[in-house]
Amino acid sequence: MELMYKWVLYIGIPVVIILPFIVIKKKNSYKDSIKAANVSYVKDNPQFRKKVIIYKIMGFIALAGLWFSIAISFIMVSRPVEVKTISKTLRNRDIFLCLDISDSMDELNQYICDDLKELVNGLDGERFGITIFCGKSVVLVPLTTDYDYVLNEIDKLNEAFQKSMSYWNWYNDFDLETYEYKYAGTLSDYGSSLIGDGLAACLFDFPDLREDSERARIIILSTDNEVYGQQLVTVDEATDLCAKYGVKVFALGPDYVYDEEGFKRDIEKTGGQYYKIKKQSAVQEVIDAISVTDASDTEEIETIITDRPKLLFYILLASLGVYFIAGRKVRL
Question: How does 275-285 read in b/e, with b if 16+ C-beta sit within 10 Å?
Answer without folding.
Answer: bbbeeeebbee
